[in-house]
């Protein structure tokens, strides 16, 4: 059965048959028990208890839970999933706790629309890799409370840096987002929403212990006194990650070494009410991580293949220090709640040091990357008529980055680049409800840049039609782009140089979908998409000096399917499937034409069934299956994929004490995410959380 799931064609059959069988079971169960099912609350939401004796309908916990989830990213204002013409997927902080997700990277594991597994490992500190609709990590924009935090020096953002103790929810918006957010949003947007202060003074503390030396401690204090409210927290996570593993292709067995990690993350948020219609918020996040970099096992065949140049390291280390801070002012205009001005200034400081201290002294190097970003966001969200809303504003971001290499043998430092980049934009999004059942939105953004070819225009259009109380149709088009990074443009080394003449990557994203309620016990969401990325920036291994070039075009088509149902009282299930087919349509290498883009083409299937009560008890079995995928663009090398089963539980011991636990990869399925880089196998963790 597991081998069958590895095959993408069979994966389609499995998910379709699973949905059909599940629907049959539901219909039978509903016919028998519809009049007897009571209303439980799911642990992943906060709903006031009913004020009368009649129990609320199931829709609140299944259809209502999904469609009424608050989201920001599709609108650049507060809204809900049901109001969006775009498919958007959400995981809440409570769900992260129940699933035992320690970082944002782990929190994305069971969501549709994204391949979050990465290409390095499964440890808590493993470098994240997020593939959305044929795009890679550098083509996915990461937002923190609605503002960009991508590394413009080297590209992307490592989601394993952010621990979940301070996270309210994470939104995944597939299909790009350049109309509202600008560069880097070619494949999609991930928006990380941090916790808001509580009304009452509350302290939460937790300890988690687990396999291979996992030791996590967290504490959060939140509250409000007068017009001042706050959230202050700290997370310390430590692990050895010294698990046994084998790589059959290299005839290798051993124990993972130099794989330890230590997090020290701090968060603080202060909010002041300046009268009844103005708020001022200061937020800061400090991320510190010290980790070993163990490398990978060399794969001898094929010669010069993807894992051929791997090496295991005993002393390589990576040190990360990041400060993400912002000041936000919100002001409600007029006497109602239909006009909101938001002004934000932010400053980010990212410092990464990589120590290559393995091997002989002549080969030992230190690589330093320092980045400083200053930005401004101003916008006005204005519902100027009963059926019309306009969001418009201005963005600006300045990024300076410095990259250097220190040679321990010669004690000389070589500068790779020391440059800056300015980006500014004007944007607007207009939404009109022609009728209560039909709405259209139009968007336009003009980006400006200090790059010679950095300006870009991003239009978008979306529509939503409510055919009946049970059926909604939606369709979208959006134009996206990604500006080259400073490394792409200006890097200088002994065997490589940047290319200051690079053009921005650009793409067109289309999708059409349906949200279908299944009577009063479930919701099915289907989305067909087509995503094109042209002027792809790729590394050209020229001799004697390599560089970056705009060399390709990729078109990705696929389907995202998500099913949420209630099978019986307190029993819930979900199934989601993401089918990807990214094809290289243009390339300087003729052998790559019409081949599948490496890593981004895996199909993902997630299934889960859980028992949940209004008191917060949770017990679930979750399955995550990733189909086979090529590891090079000529498709001569590939990995077979894998399927894992996890058990998750959350047990309230009292009103103030909660026990959590999980066993991941119950069947101890061993696999590789990249040739020569192993997974950790079966792991467990047990946590105790107190609120007082």
UniProtKB/TrEMBL annotation:
Keywords: Cell outer membrane, Membrane, Receptor, Signal, TonB box, Transmembrane, Transmembrane beta strand, Transport
CDD domains, alphabetized: ligand_gated_channel (cd01347)
Main localization, broad class: membrane
Subcellular location field: Cell outer membrane
Residues in TonB-dependent receptor plug domain copies: 81-189
One GO cellular component term: cell outer membrane
Signal peptide segment: 1-34
Keyword Signal: yes
Start and end residues of each TonB-dependent receptor-like beta-barrel domain: 276-666
Topological category with respect to the lipid bilayer: Multi-pass membrane protein
Domain of life (superkingdom): Bacteria
SUPFAM superfamilies tied to this protein: Porins
A GO biological-process term: siderophore transmembrane transport
GO molecular function: siderophore uptake transmembrane transporter activity
PROSITE patterns for the chain: TONB_DEPENDENT_REC_3 (PS52016)
Family as reported in the entry's similarity comment: Belongs to the TonB-dependent receptor family.
Protein name: TonB-dependent receptor
Source organism: Brasilonema sennae CENA114
């Amino acid at each position: 059965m597991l081998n069958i799931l590895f095959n993408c064609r069979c994966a389609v059959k499995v998910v379709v048959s699973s949905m059909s069988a599940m629907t049959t079971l539901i219909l039978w169960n509903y016919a028998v028990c519809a009049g007897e099912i009571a209303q439980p609350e799911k642990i992943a939401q906060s709903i006031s208890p009913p004020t009368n004796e009649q129990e609320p309908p199931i829709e609140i916990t299944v259809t209502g839970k999904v469609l009424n989830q608050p989201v920001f990213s599709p609108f650049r204002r507060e809204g809900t999933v049901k109001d969006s013409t775009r498919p958007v997927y959400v995981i809440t902080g409570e769900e992260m706790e129940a699933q035992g997700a320690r970082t944002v990277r782990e929190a994305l594991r069971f969501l549709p629309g994204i391949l979050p597994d990465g290409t390095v490992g499964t440890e808590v500190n493993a470098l994240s890799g997020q593939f959305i609709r044929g795009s890679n990590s550098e083509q996915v924009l990461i937002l923190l409370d609605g503002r960009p935090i991508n590394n413009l020096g080297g590209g992307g953002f490592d989601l394993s840096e952010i621990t979940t103790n301070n996270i309210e929810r994470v939104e995944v918006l597939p299909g790009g987002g350049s109309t509202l957010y600008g560069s880097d949003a070619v494949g999609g947007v991930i928006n990380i929403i941090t916790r808001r202060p509580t009304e009452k003074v509350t302290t939460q503390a937790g300890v988690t212990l687990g396999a291979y030396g996992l030791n996590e401690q967290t504490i959060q204090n939140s509250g409000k006194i007068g017009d001042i409210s706050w959230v202050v927290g700290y997370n310390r996570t430590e692990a050895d990650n010294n698990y046994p593993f084998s790589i059959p292709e290299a005839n290798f067995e051993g124990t993972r070494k130099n794989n330890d990690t230590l997090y020290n993350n701090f968060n603080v948020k202060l909010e002041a009410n300046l009268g009844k219609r103005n708020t001022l918020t200061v937020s800061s996040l400090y991320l510190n991580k010290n980790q070993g970099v163990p490398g990978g096992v060399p794969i001898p065949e094929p010669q010069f293949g993807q894992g051929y140049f791997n090496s295991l390291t005993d002393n390589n280390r990576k040190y990360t220090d990041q400060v993400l801070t912002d000041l936000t002012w919100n002001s409600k205009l007029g006497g109602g709640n239909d006009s909101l001005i938001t002004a934000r200034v932010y400053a980010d400081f990212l410092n990464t040091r990589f120590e290559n201290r393995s091997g002989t002294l002549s080969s030992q190097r230190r690589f330093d990357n320092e980045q400083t970003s200053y930005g401004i966001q101003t916008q006005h969200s204005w519902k100027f008529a009963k059926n019309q809303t306009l969001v418009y504003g201005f963005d600006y971001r300045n990024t300076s980055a410095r990259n250097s290499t220190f040679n321990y043998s010669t004690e000389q430092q070589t500068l790779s680049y020391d440059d800056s980049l300015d980006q500014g934009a004007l944007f607007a999004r207009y939404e009109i409800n022609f009728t209560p059942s039909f709405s259209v939105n139009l968007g336009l953004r003009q980006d400006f840049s200090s790059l010679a070819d950095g300006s870009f225009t991003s239009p978008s259009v979306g529509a939503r039609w409510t055919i009946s109380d049970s059926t909604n149709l939606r369709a979208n088009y959006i134009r996206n782009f990604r500006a080259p990074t400073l490394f792409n443009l200006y890097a200088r080394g002994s065997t490589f140089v940047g290319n200051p003449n690079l053009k921005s990557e650009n793409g067109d994203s289309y999708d059409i979908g349906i949200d279908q309620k299944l009577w009063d016990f479930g919701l099915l969401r289907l989305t067909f998409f087509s995503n094109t990325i042209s002027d792809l920036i790729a590394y050209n291994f020229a001799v004697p000096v390599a560089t970056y070039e705009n060399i390709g075009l990729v078109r990705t088509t696929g389907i995202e399917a998500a099913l949420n149902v209630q099978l019986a009282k307190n029993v819930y299930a979900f199934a989601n499937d993401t089918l990807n087919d990214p094809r290289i349509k243009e390339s300087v290498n003729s052998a790559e034409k019409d081949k599948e883009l490496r890593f981004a083409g895996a199909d993902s299937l997630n299934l889960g069934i859980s028992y949940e009560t209004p008191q917060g008890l949770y017990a679930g079995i979750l399955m995550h299956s990733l189909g086979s995928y090529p590891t090079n663009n000529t498709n001569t090398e590939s990995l077979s994929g894998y399927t894992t089963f996890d058990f998750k539980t959350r047990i309230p011991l009292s009103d103030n004490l909660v026990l959590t636990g999980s066993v991941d990869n119950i069947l101890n399925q061993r696999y590789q995410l990249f040739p020569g880089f192993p997974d950790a196998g079966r792991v467990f963790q047990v946590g105790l959380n107190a609120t007082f």
